[in-house]
Amino acid sequence: MQQPAAEELLGLFKKYEFKRWTADVEAGKWLQAKGAKPAARPQETSVADEAPEVTATVISYDNYVTILDEETLKAWIAKLEKAPVFAFDTETDSLDNISANLVGLSFAIEPGVAAYIPVAHDYLDAPDQNLSRGVPLELPKTAAGR
């Protein structure tokens, strides 16, 4: 942080007739609170010659699955049933809960092990969604009713 340019401030304050501020700048009081001591001058510090060792976290996507067929969906339902806990999230095309349309469903059974079910992706090169929108919603109910 650099010191205020007192001469520039003084010129502006005089130009716009800020008499009180002009007097404060001339008295050396500008930008100092009442009773405040002048700021200490920064001291030079030495920097270690060695940079700290940084280890990058390797992210593996091997256990992330896009569910595009009923067989994979059934396998994931079985995994979810066996998991002590799991995370579930919906993906929508809006944050408005009244008008939002379901776009996909996601599940995770542990960190780094997750699945995504696209149900209404509509863009160039979107994956074939062999599951109709109703299948991912109905199949878990059917499995639970066994």
From TrEMBL:
Where the record annotates domain 3'-5' exonuclease, the positions are 64-130
Entry keyword annotation includes Transferase: yes
Which InterPro entries does its entry note?
A: 3'-5'_exonuclease_dom, RNaseH-like_sf, RNaseH_sf
Q: What class of enzyme is it?
A: transferase
GO MF annotation: an example: DNA-directed DNA polymerase activity
Alphabetically sorted, this entry's keywords are: Nucleotidyltransferase, Transferase
SUPFAM superfamilies documented for this protein: Ribonuclease H-like
Q: Which residues form the signal peptide?
A: none
Gene3D superfamilies, per the entry: Ribonuclease H-like superfamily/Ribonuclease H
Give the Enzyme Commission number: 2.7.7.7
Any idea what this protein is called? DNA polymerase I
Q: Which organism is it from?
A: Escherichia coli
Encoded by which gene?
A: polA_4
